[in-house]
Structure formats: structure tokens, C-alpha cells
Write a structure and sequence with these properties.
The protein has helices at 11-14, 27-60, 63-85, 92-120, 125-153, 158-211, 219-241, 243-255, 304-312, 332-337, 353-361, 363-368, 385-393, 429-437, 456-467, 528-540, and strands at residues 259-264, 269-273, 290-293, 296-300, 322-327, 345-350, 378-382, 408-414, 439-450, 472-479, 501-508. It is of the alpha/beta class. The longest helix has 54 residues, at 158-211.
């Protein structure tokens, strides 16, 4: 059933205080004020959406799933809000003022509330859904109310009013969408950025109602709305003042009391705990060094040697004069490579240059990697591994290794797990095709393929994808020291993979022999017998029929 059209009335016709005369604001000025408010509200609304998506992806991982959940819930809630707003059009000015105050409070405080739930309670899934619903309902209520208000300022046909409203809305959304990644996030961070957005939201919404449509409100309603907006601004300002101590307390709740370094780079959040004492990786009270990237433990001094020995040393059997490390900005894989005197040059391609800087300058991390990044044989390239390899494969582009006749004897792929959405392209058929082009005849490729026990489907998909570019593979998996008591941050220490094992794939043009070099340095955990057992463990868990993952059809799910 189609609702009857809303009659176009002047402000005086609907003023609760009686026919006090029309607003003193000229119609062109009032119309501009309404459209400017639409612009700002659209920008703020999109910032709230992007903030929720970014937080959901950061706190729970799998950015595609989290973006899909947040955006679909919000769009549904916006439709619900539009329907609910139909009953509010009779008092559109007052309703709009209340909606904007609520939206500014809920949206502005959302980042702080979600991070608090993550830090002290762990599970944020339903909290994110709740905020998505609340913010979506309030955003959805804006457009019907603004449509009513713009018609009161100046009568015009419905099609023209809708066109003006949506034009301002879409341009505002563009500005908000660009402001979030290029201004708010890098300059202010997630917490302060959301609070500032809420402050802008409540000021602009309140100004429109209390200026242009003040005759629609009784003196008591005006006073109440001013007090409510002042309270929202006070709460948001208090949150802004407390952002730094709050973030510090939340970080200690997540990572424990030994946090030494916490920085937000252009790529990720980097946190280092422990490792401040004189021993390699040992804290002043015996706490081992731990490196977290975006809340996930990537390095623990207790067991990192098991991972890095298993990644590096099987690939060093044979020629290893020229080595390429993809990822590995912490310098730990590099440490193992440089233990071989036959290594002449190593190229490290790392996206996050600030991780490399920390690996060079942080006392605990540089001790743990034995200052490998200071070795003159090492060349660090700060770039995306996929783009860097692609440039080397183009006609007329730099030769592999950056030197005439380049190419590598060993390639080590020390990258995040393939289950993380942002890293799926680095485990694609196209990526391994690019890697194959920089491999010399007889070269070997070692790939970190994620946990075999915890995510066997993803592991065997990596194996199948590597084989799809013409390489032959040998799988193996080793167990970390913390396999039995692995926990999330905030609940104790855990291994680098939740299941406690690390899966690898060794590949070459001809089937490689999985063994350790005869002339190898002393190793702490990996022996020929342990390596054979690692291979048998992987073969016993073989899953036939694993698909090949491509850029256009990524196959890394949760299983």
C-alpha cells in the first residue's frame, strides 16, 4: 500500500507553539543548510560503517566475511530505520535532532566500546552486530526526516527534492569514504577518529534544528535538545582525553604487563612484549620476547627457532649463493640463512618497513635475530612481494635479484597464514608463477603454508597451488613448543598458529629431496630424524582433490 503524500507545510503551520510566523531564515539559506547537513551526515555515516568494518577485520580477521556481515546488517537496519521514521515525520525537526544526538553518541563511542569488549571479554562478534544494527537504524531514519525538512524550507516537486537530497548524500559519502583511510585513520587512529566524527555529527545536526527549524520546537524542547547535545559533546570529549590511557590499559589487558613497543604503521599494529633483558629474547623478569602483528602472535622467543629452522634449512640443500626472502621483516629467517658461509647475497622483500626498522633497532628483537639486517650481504626492499616480483618479470624490467643474469638459488616465502584475506594473493597461482620465473635451474622454494592440523584444507590448497605452476612439492609439518597450551592474546601465551603446528611445502622444478645440508650449522631443534618424521606426519594427513587458488577464485576458507 502506498502512503498518501505528506502535505507541504511551512514551519509556522506545524510549530507546537502556535502560528508564530515563518522562520526568519531565508529559504535559499535554509535549503543550503539542509543540503549541507545531508552532506555531513552522509560523510559521518560512511565513516561509522568503515570503522566497524575495519575493527571487525582487525579484531576477528577474515576481512571479506566481516565486511559482508557488517555491511549487510547495516543495510537491513537502514531500511528498518526508514520505515520507523515514517511515524516521526509529524515532528521531523525534533526527531532529527534526537536521532543525530543518538547517532553521534553510538557511532562515536563504537570503536572504544568494541575494543573494550575485545580486551576484557574476548568475544566481539555479537557486539559488532549490535552496533551495526543500532547505527544502521539511526542512519536509515535520517533521509525520510531530511526529506520532510527540505520540503518545509521551500516547496518543490518530489523528484527534484529527492535528486537534490541524494546528490548531497552521495557526495558526502564520497568525502567520508576518502577521509577515513587517508585522514582519520592515519592521523587520529580508530578510537579518536570515531570520537571526532561523532562530535562533528552532533554539532551539525543540532545546529540545523536549533537554527533553521527553531520555531518547530517549544522553549522546553529547545533547552532539552541543547542539554542533550552538550552532554553528548562532553562524553565524546572525555573519551578523546582518555583515549591514550584507555588504549594503554586495553593493550595491557590483551598482551599482558610487559608491553615495550606499540606502534601503528601504515600496514598494521605492531606490539612487542618482553625481551628487554640481556639474554636473547628474555625479559627482565624472564618474560620471552613476543611480536604481535594486528593482534596475532607472529613470533615467540620460546619457539620461533623451531619455525625458522624448519622453513630455512631444508631449502638450503644445494646451491644457496643467492637467496630471496619474501616477508620475514623480523630478520629471524634471515638469521638462519646467514649462518651458511656460502651465501653471497640475500634480498628481503618486506611490505612494512617499520617492522624492518624495529628488527634493526629494538634491543630485544635485534638480539634475537643476531643483528642479521646489518650484514653487508643483505639488501632490503620495502615493497609488496607480488608487485615486486611482477616488475621483475616484465620485458625491460629489472632482472631478478637486481643484477644482470640474476635469479635465486633459494626462495623463502615467510608470509602470514593463507587464511588471512589480505594475504590470499600471496598464496595464489599467479603469485607462484611469478616466483617460478625468478628461480634459477635447480632452485628450491620453501613456503609457510599454515597449520596442518588446524586448517588441513588450506594447507593442501597451498600444496596444490604450488604444483599448478609446474613445481613438484614435498610437504612437512613441525610441532611448536606451545602446541598444548596455545591461547589467544589476553589469556596467556600461545604458539604462532592456534593449533601449535607449522606446515611447510618444499618445491622445485624436479621433485626435491627433503633433507638437511651435510655442511650445516648446529641446530637447536631440527634433526634429520625429526625432518623425516615431519614429512610422514604431513603425508598421513594428505587430502586428495584440493583445489587451486587463483586471484579471481581464492580457495582459502576456514577448514
Amino acid at each position: 500500500m502506498i502512503d498518501p503524500p505528506v502535505p507541504l507545510v511551512s514551519v509556522a503551520e506545524e510549530s507546537p507553539t502556535g502560528p508564530a510566523g515563518p522562520s526568519r531564515v531565508p529559504a535559499p539559506v535554509g535549503r543550503f543548510a539542509v543540503l549541507a547537513t545531508v552532506f555531513v551526515c552522509a560523510a559521518c555515516g560512511l565513516v561509522y560503517e568503515l570503522e566497524l568494518v575495519a575493527l571487525a577485520s582487525y579484531l576477528m580477521g577474515d576481512s571479506v566475511t566481516q565486511a559482508s556481515v557488517v555491511l549487510s546488517v547495516m543495510v537491513f537496519a537502514m531500511g528498518t530505520g526508514s520505515l520507523l521514521a515514517k511515524r516521526l515525520r509529524v515532528r521531523a525537526a525534533l526527531a532529527f535532532g534526537v536521532v543525530e544526538a543518538l547517532l553521534a553518541m553510538v557511532g562515536g563511542a563504537s570503536a572504544m566500546a568494541l575494543y573494550a569488549c575485545f580486551a576484557w571479554y574476548g568475544d566481539t562478534r555479537w557486539v559488532i552486530v549490535g552496533f551495526s544494527l543500532a547505527i544502521g537504524v539511526l542512519i536509515g531514519a535520517e533521509v525520510p526526516l531530511l526529506m520532510t525538512l527540505i520540503q518545509r524550507v521551500r516547496r518543490q516537486d518530489a523528484g527534484g527534492a529527492v535528486a537534490d537530497l541524494f546528490a548531497a548524500d552521495y557526495v558526502g559519502a564520497l568525502v567520508g569514504g576518502l577521509a577515513f583511510p587517508f585522514l582519520l585513520l592515519p592521523r587520529f587512529g580508530q578510537l579518536l577518529g570515531a570520537l571526532l566524527t561523532g562530535a562533528v555529527n552532533v554539532v551539525v545536526g543540532g545546529a540545523l534544528v536549533l537554527w533553521v527549524f527553531r520555531r518547530d520546537l517549544s522553549p522546553r524542547e529547545r533547552g532539552t535538545l541543547i542539554a542533550a547535545n552538550g552532554l553528548v559533546l562532553l562524553l565524546l570529549a572525555s573519551g578523546a582525553v582518555l583515549t591514550e590511557p584507555f588504549e594503554g590499559a586495553a593493550r595491557r589487558a590483551v598482551y599482558g604487563p610487559d608491553v615495550r613497543v606499540a606502534v601503528h604503521t601504515d600496514v598494521q599494529e605492531v606490539v612487542i612484549t618482553g625481551g628487554a633483558g640481556p639474554g636473547a629474547g628474555a625479559g627482565s623478569a624472564g618474560a620471552p620476547l613476543a611480536l604481535y602483528l594486528d593482534g596475532e602472535l607472529r613470533v615467540s622467543a620460546r619457539d620461533e627457532f623451531r619455525y625458522h629452522e624448519a622453513l630455512v634449512h631444508p631449502a638450503m640443500t644445494g646451491p644457496h649463493a643467492r637467496v630471496l626472502v619474501l616477508g620475514g621483516g623480523d630478520g629471524l629467517a634471515l638469521r638462519e640463512v646467514l649462518r651458511y658461509p656460502g651465501v653471497r647475497t640475500v634480498t628481503v622483500v618486506e611490505l612494512d618497513g617499520e617492522v624492518v626498522d624495529l628488527a634493526r633497532t629494538d634491543p630485544g628483537l635485534s638480539r634475537l635475530n643476531q643483528r642479521a639486517l646489518a650484514d653487508p650481504r643483505v639488501r632490503v626492499v620495502r615493497a609488496d612481494a607480488f608487485g615486486w616480483l611482477r616488475e621483475r618479470g616484465r620485458p625491460g624490467g629489472p632482472s631478478p635479484g637486481g643484477q644482470p643474469g640474476g635469479g635465486y638459488d633459494v626462495v623463502l616465502s615467510d608470509l602470514p597464514d593463507p587464511g588471512l584475506t589480505a594475504s590470499t594473493k600471496l598464496y595464489s597461482q599467479e603469485f607462484y608463477g611469478l616466483v617460478r620465473r625468478v628461480m634459477r635451474p635447480g632452485a628450491r622454494l620453501a613456503v609457510h603454508a599454515g597449520p596442518l592440523d588446524g586448517r588441513p584444507r588450506a594447507y593442501w590448497t597451498v600444496d596444490a597451488t604450488v604444483r599448478s605452476v609446474g613445481l613438484r612439492t614435498v610437504p612437512y609439518a613441525v610441532v611448536g613448543r606451545l602446541a598444548r597450551d596455545a591461547e589467544r592474546p589476553g589469556g596467556g601465551e600461545r604458539g604462532s598458529d592456534p593449533s601449535g603446528d607449522w606446515g611447510f611445502v618444499l618445491a622445485a622444478r624436479d621433485r626435491p629431496e627433503l633433507r638437511l645440508p651435510a655442511a650445516r650449522p648446529a641446530l637447536r631443534s631440527l634433526t634429520p630424524r625429526a625432518l623425516r618424521a615431519a614429512h610422514r606426519q604431513a603425508e598421513r594427513r594428505y587430502r586428495p582433490g584440493a583445489p587451486t587458488s587463483t586471484l579471481m577464485h581464492p580457495r582459502y576458507g576456514t577448514g
